[in-house]
Design a protein that fits this description.
It is a single chain. By secondary structure, the chain is mostly beta strands. The chain has one domain. Helices cover about 10% and strands about 35% of the residues. The strands form 5 sheets. It has an 8-stranded mixed beta sheet with strand order 2-1-14-13-19-16-15-21. The protein has a 5-stranded mixed beta barrel with strand order 5-6-10-11-12. The protein has a 3-stranded antiparallel beta sheet with strand order 4-3-20, with no helix packed on it. A hairpin with an 8-residue loop joins strand 5 and strand 6. The longest helix has 11 residues. The two termini are about 25 Å apart.
Length: about 325
């Protein structure tokens, strides 16, 4: 098995930047979900900014993101706009430039983070295209927030201080929904593809599932074998001394964001709606199907590359339970 594709989502719920290599941090891949689009606080929001998600705002699919060769500039392009189609912002804003900026508290699945407002120009850009008042926030404070739902995980994950292993630091996240990473497999991708009408199977389907790491399992594994993964070892093809440890946390429950037509920013036709197609035999309960594994990885500073070799070093000994009954449903967007 090997790493086939790597995706970074600089702005939560917008399109990914596909890369050939990415640095691992204690909050996931470097630059992943460090920005979020929000609705400003209002009377009923208890002072919190509400994050805007592709789950309910399908036109977010029309924005594409790109990182320049120097890894200093992030360019956002609206694919259907005739005017004001593109805007660029720093990939990593200068602390001095943000010193006097407005800050907001953002709650995502019950855990909060500080977001620093990126100003009027970019706010007007997104507000105009989305036709609603929108602000773009950069992760502030200590640059991280607690992992939602961690208190519901088995006790050996140490509640709110999930560690990859006993040698690595506890993990946190930025504006991701529920975990530092999401891992999917080619075998599961092809199973999902076979559920679509033949005319629709040419789509780059895995992008709808929004993974960070897509693993080519070849003919070695059956679809959804990743349901039983517990620990992975990823060995660098360039540095024989580097080994990345990956702990799979729980299977990823999915939502209606699977039904977005990424080219049109609208819902796909009923025969192509992956949410319903997966609900037939991949459901965890009456509401949610499963696809992929939430995970964390280390050590921080290691580089993950396309082509790196992946080995399952530990499997779950019993049928995995993605979430306990009383825990919130967590879905990546």
């Amino acid at each position: 098995m090997k790493v086939q594709r790597i995706f970074i989502y600089p702005i939560k719920s917008l399109g990914p930047v596909e890369v050939t290599a990415a640095e691992i941090t204690n909050e996931g891949l470097r630059f992943d979900r460090q920005y979020v689009l929000v609705k400003p606080p209002h009377e009923k929001s208890a002072g919190l900014a509400e994050h805007i998600t592709i789950k309910t705002t399908f036109p977010l699919a029309l924005f594409r993101t790109a990182i320049d060769k120097s890894w200093s500039k992030l360019t956002i392009t609206h694919t259907q706009a005739e005017d004001n189609a593109t805007i660029s912002i720093p990939l990593t804003p200068s602390p001095l430039g943000l010193f006097k900026a407005t800050t907001f508290q953002v709650s995502i699945f019950g855990t909060k983070a500080t977001g620093i407002d990126m100003g009027e120009e970019v706010a007007n850009y997104f507000s105009g295209h989305l036709k609603q008042t929108t602000r773009l926030l950069y992760i502030g404070g200590n640059g991280q927030r607690e992992i939602p739902g961690a208190a519901f995980l088995p006790k050996h994950y140490h509640a709110m201080s999930i560690s990859v292993n006993d040698k690595l630091q506890p993990q946190r996240i930025r504006f991701a929904d529920a975990a530092p990473l999401l891992i999917t497999s080619t075998a599961s991708e092809e199973d999902a593809r076979r559920r679509l009408p033949p005319a629709a199977r040419g789509e780059d389907l895995i992008v709808r599932f929004r993974p960070n790491v897509h693993v080519d399992v070849g003919a070695e594994q059956e679809p959804y074998d990743e349901d039983g993964w517990n620990m992975l070892s990823i060995k660098s093809q360039l540095d024989s001394t580097q080994e990345v440890s990956v702990r799979c946390l729980f299977r990823t429950v999915r939502c209606l964001s699977l039904n977005v037509d990424l080219s049109k920013g609208a819902m796909v036709a009923t025969p192509q709606q992956l949410y319903g197609l997966l609900m037939k035999d991949r459901r965890v309960n009456e509401k949610f199907p499963l696809f992929g594994q939430y995970a964390c990885a280390g050590p921080s500073g290691a580089v993950l590359r396309v082509g790196d070799q992946v080995q399952v070093t530990e499997r779950i000994k019993k049928e995995p339970t993605p979430l306990l009954p009383q825990s919130p449903a967590l879905e990546v967007r």
